[in-house]
Every structure is written in structure tokens, then in C-alpha cells.
Design goal:
Blueprint lengths: L1 H7 L2 H5 L4 H15 L7 H14 L4 H17 L3 H14 L4 H13 L3 H14 L4 H13 L3 H14 L4 H13 L3 H14 L4 H14 L2 H14 L4 H13 L3 H13 L3 H12 L5
Helix pairs in contact: 3-4, 4-5, 5-6, 5-7, 6-7, 7-8, 8-9, 9-10, 10-11, 11-12, 11-13, 12-13, 13-14, 13-15, 14-15, 15-16, 15-17
Length: 282
């Protein structure tokens, strides 16, 4: 992916225009900036990108790539605001840069700016209509906004483009489950787990499906593994509490409610309770 991106942006061609010593220095900066395989420390990689940006010797497309790569480093280091600033520059230099739109959307998503994220995914898809991850991630943004129908439309397209992506199958399962479409959701969860066995996210989704179908033992087994594998997610603990309560294990259910409260703010907990209580067995 990285090699293809550099080739498309003419970075390799730009290397050839310099003297041998300058080319060597430029090569080293690009190697640091791209940091394929994580060879360099983040600050070293950022330094490589910055040196390229300040060199005054690169093509516009290559400069856009350097800012894009530096933005990715910022994102990986948990600095989405700095990442967005670099993606902004990359897109000013190259307004048809699908990867920069895609990654800026992800950074907006990390900051909870879902509308901006969706707008950027729209642009990435316009430029590169077969970019499965853009459909998957835009679907996740719609899902977070509670727009399950639009989320499902994007998950459908992502699966058509990339049928071996376990995350998308799990996401579609969960979206269907939250709509109460348990029978339709179950095959999606099964496919996700076939592709990535014991995945905590898919197991949590399937637990909700089994709860709706009245398969309490199966729901409890899935939920127990999910919260053990990925503890600290309030909604998962609350779902497990519903399952345990349905099984008559009140003490264990109360313990899971306490875990859910510890993992969330009061307003978030109330939102989770409102979302999941409708699946409480009568």
C-alpha cells in the first residue's frame, strides 16, 4: 500500500533528480517519514517528514504525501488534532488525495467530530469508490450517531468490497441486533467469528443476539468471554448484567452493573441502560 502510494505520487521519480549525496539524504528522510514496519521511533519519523516538508525540493504531490505520513504518525501517537492539521495541508496540496481524506476522517472520529468524519469519508469514497475501509468506517460513524439504517447500507457495501473483513461482519451483526433483527444478525456474527475466532467484539454482538433469541446459556458464555477479553467497556458489562439477571444470578448481575458504572460517566450509563433495557427478557 505504501509503496503504491509513493509510486502514484511520484516520490520515486523525485528521488532521481538529485545528486548522489542529496539523494541519499532524501532517501533516508523518506525512509524515516514512511517508517514502514515501525523501524524508527515516532519522533525520528516526524523529523524525517519535517525535513522533507522544509527541503523545498519535492513535487507538490510528494509534499502532500509527507504531510499525510506525518499526520498518520500523530494519529498513531494519540494526537488527532495535530494529525488533522497535517492532513489539512496535504489536502490543500492535493485536493484529490483519497487516503488523506480517509485518515482525516478517522482523526475527526477520534475527536468525536462525527459529522466532519462522515463528510471526509464521503470525499474519500467519491475519489476511490472501491475503498472498503471508508465504507466500513463511515458506517461506524453513522452507527455511533444512532443511524443504523445508513450504517447498514455502508456495512453492506464494505462487505461486498472486502468480504474477508471480520470487523465489518461483526459491526453489521451488532447493528442488526440493536434493531431487534436477531435472526438476520446471527449469520453475520457467525461469519465474523469464522474469520477471526474468539474475537471479543463479535462475541459481545452474538451475546446480544442470543439474548434476544432466548438462548441464555449461549448468551452468557459469549458475554463472559467478551468482558474478560476486553474489560472496561460499559455497554458490554451492562449487557452481561441483563443476561445474568435473566438467568437468576442477581448478585453477579449487580456486580456487572457496578463495572458498567465504573467504566462510564453517569449520563453515558443512563444512555446505555436506555439502549439495552428494551432487550431485557420479560
Amino acid at each position: 500500500m505504501i509503496a503504491r502510494l509513493l509510486s502514484m505520487l511520484g516520490v520515486v521519480a523525485a528521488f532521481g533528480a538529485a545528486s548522489a549525496s542529496a539523494q541519499s539524504e532524501r532517501d533516508q528522510n523518506w525512509q524515516k517519514c514512511v517508517n514502514d514496519g515501525g523501524t524508527f521511533a515516532p519522533d525520528v519519523a516526524v523529523g524525517g517528514c519535517t525535513a522533507i516538508a522544509e527541503s523545498g525540493e519535492e513535487t507538490t504531490e510528494a509534499l502532500a504525501a509527507a504531510f499525510h505520513f506525518r499526520g498518520r504518525i500523530h494519529s498513531e501517537q494519540g494526537r488527532p488534532d495535530a494529525a488533522i492539521a497535517d492532513y489539512d495541508v496535504a489536502l490543500k496540496l492535493n485536493p484529490e488525495f483519497a487516503a488523506a481524506f480517509h485518515d482525516r476522517a478517522s482523526a475527526h472520529g477520534e475527536m468525536g467530530q462525527l459529522d466532519q468524519a462522515i463528510q471526509d469519508y464521503d470525499q474519500a469514497i467519491r475519489i476511490e469508490p472501491t475503498l472498503a475501509s471508508a465504507f466500513q468506517n463511515r458506517g461506524a460513524a453513522y452507527f455511533t450517531k444512532g443511524d443504523y439504517e445508513r450504517a447498514l447500507q455502508d456495512f453492506d457495501q464494505a462487505i461486498r468490497l472486502s468480504p474477508d473483513d471480520a470487523t465489518t461482519w461483526s459491526s453489521r451483526c451488532f447493528a442488526k441486533a440493536l434493531q431487534g433483527r436477531a435472526t438476520q444478525a446471527l449469520p453475520d456474527c457467525e461469519q465474523s467469528l469464522k474469520l477471526r475466532p474468539d474475537d471479543a467484539y463479535a462475541l459481545n454482538s452474538r451475546a446480544l443476539v442470543h439474548l434476544q433469541l432466548g438462548n441464555l446459556a449461549a448468551a452468557s458464555a459469549d458475554s463472559a468471554i467478551a468482558v474478560k477479553g476486553q474489560s472496561g467497556i460499559a455497554a458490554w458489562h451492562y449487557l452481561y448484567s441483563l443476561i445474568l439477571a435473566a438467568q437468576g444470578n442477581r448478585a453477579a448481575a449487580d456486580a456487572q452493573i457496578e463495572e458498567a458504572k465504573k467504566a462510564s460517566e453517569p449520563a453515558q450509563f443512563e444512555q446505555i441502560r436506555s439502549e439495552f433495557d428494551r432487550f431485557r427478557p420479560k
